Each structure stands twice: as structure tokens, then as C-alpha cells.
Amino acid sequence: MSRFQRRKREVPGLNLASLPDLIFTVLFFFLLVTHMRDVNPKVRFEVPQGTELAKTPNKGGMVYIFIGKLVDEQGRVVSDETRIQLNDRYVSVDEIVSELNRVRSQMSEGDRQHMVVSLRADRHTEMGIINDVKQALRQAGALNVNYSATGKNKENRE
């Protein structure tokens, strides 16, 4: 019986040869499905609640108008003055027509025909400012306007 001796079995090492492939595959997946913002809001706004909401398809001809209080990089309110941000630039009501014409001239022909203006205003913004912005949009020929709101049971932004 002394011929047969029991050897201690060792657990084989973990094969990590395919780990870099797996990591790069997951990284590539997240790069494909991540949506990057086109425009960063520089004003604080809390969109109003609505009852009849519908999602609009996000096409290439989107122009964003944010109306709210001015904030700094950390998100703190700097002043109580209501500011208008069209894409990445601050504008006054008088400059909206010329700024929209500038943005429209940079779009492709297909995007110009289907241009949608997304209006995201703070719920405490005076209706006179929103009315002035709507009149300026009419003068600029931007008649397809999308108003952003949240549902009654949701707290996040739409």
C-alpha cells in the first residue's frame, strides 16, 4: 500500500487571458449606447407639470431654448434675473430672430425643413417673457415648438 500516495490537489489558477477582450467589449458597448448632450443648460429651470404628454422623436434639427435663473458651473443660482439661453449662447428677446437664422443657416437642408424648437422654461417664469419668446419665434418662422413638462406623478425632467 505504500506505493499509492495521495497527493494534495491544488486548485488550478484562474485563466485571465480573455479578460481584456471582455473589458473592451463592454467599453465599446457603453460608447455606442451612451447619449451625449448636445446643449448644456446654463440656467436653472424647473419644468411645469402636464397632463397630456407625448415624447417627440429626437431629430437632427432640434434647437433648445432654456428660460430660467442664471447659474454658475456648480449649479448655484447667481442672480434672480431671468435669462434666455438659445443652444449654448445667452440671448435677449430681440436677438432670438437673428440667432435662430444663424443656427438655421448652419443646418443641413433636411434639418431646416424639420427644425423643432424645444422650449424649456422654469415654472416660475413670468408668462410675459414666454409670450415675447413665442412672438420672436413666429417672426423667425419657427412654428414647430415643443414645450417641455413633467408628468403629474414624476419628479424628473422630460
Task: Walk me through the topology.
Layout: H1 19-33, E1 43-44, E2 49-50, E3 62-71, E4 77-86, E5 89-91, H2 96-106, H3 109-113, E6 116-121, H4 127-140, E7 145-147, E8 150-151
Parallel strand pairs: 2-8, 3-6, 6-7
Antiparallel strand pairs: 1-3, 3-4, 4-5
Walkthrough of the structure:
- The structure is a single chain.
- The protein has 158 residues and is α/β, with parallel strands linked by helices.
- Helix content is 28%, strand content 24%.
- The chain is built from four helices and eight strands.
- Strands 1, 3, 4, 5, 6 and 7 form a six-stranded mixed beta sheet that branches. Strands 2-8 form a two-stranded parallel sheet.
- Helix 2 crosses helix 4.
- The longest helix has 15 residues.
The topology string of helices and strands comes to HEEEEEHHEHEE
Task: Summarize the biggest pleated sheet.
Answer: 6 strands, mixed
Number of strands: 8
What are the low-pLDDT stretches, counting only 5+ consecutive residues below 50?
Answer: 154-158
| Average pLDDT reading | 80
What brief labels describe this structure?
158 residues; elongated; disordered C terminus
In short:
Helix content is 28%, strand content 24%. It has helices spanning 19-33, 96-106, 109-113, 127-140, and strands spanning 43-44, 49-50, 62-71, 77-86, 89-91, 116-121, 145-147, 150-151.
